[in-house]
Amino acid sequence: MSKTIHIKTPEEIDGMRAACQVAAEVLDRMVNFVKVGISTQDLDDFGRDQIKEFGATSSAYGYPGSKCKYPAYSCISVNDELVHGIPSKKRILQDGDVLSIDLALYFKGFCGDNTRIVRVGRIDPIADQFSKVAEDALLIGISKALPGNRIGDISHAIETYAIDHDCGVIREFVGHGIGREMHEPPSIPNYGRPHTGPLLKAGMTLAIEPMFTLGSPDIYVDQDGWTVKTHDGSLAAHCEHTILITNSSPEILTLVKK
Ligand code: MF3
Ligand code: CO
After folding, report:
1. Which residues in the chain show pLDDT less than 50?
2. What's the 62 CA to ligand 1 centre distance in angstroms?
């Protein structure tokens, strides 16, 4: 993979818009499918069918990992699971669960990647506030995605917001450039110093994805080789949009058009 950050042509930007719209729509349908009593496998099966209905393909399925290829169509991470939760028939969603659904797909040669936090039933107000911090941090990070700024400006804004709200900031996983491939340069950490890192330019497309914990930021990978969990069992939060840098405000490509 080349290290240079590709500036998308107008045609490529249209391709990204289309892929991201499909990714957002599929994710939105999955979010609406969530209810108490279904398994995360049911939710993934539903997502798989929706991806197919749009003529898209999952970017997660078959993704190479240290132990095995990723075996599902989305990542569904519940409560103390941070990212890459493998859907399971045994994991039945319960009242009070907070989950993130991470859905990335390829559509007509381009990748759209997005993650939303879903609250199941009545949830603990602390969990709700914590999830909101991650959602707000995402928007704050996006607001720094301006030409002339640097990656570090996005990173720093996200980190500062997390620290101000007493959240643990994950360092092992980061956001990324995106285009024809799901993961392209640059890396977008959720921590960093202002005015450092690659310069942002109109035409770049980025997947920004804050990842926080309510307790210690220590994490580990489960025996399944994928599911990342907090060491202390505290709640974890993850959300994500794919955005386009423009000459004015950034365009959030994975917002659902109603
Ligand atoms: N959307 C995730 C990311 O940005 C990718 C999950 S696919 C997986 O990295 F196969 F790595 F789980
Ligand atoms: Co991503």
Report:
1. 1
2. 11
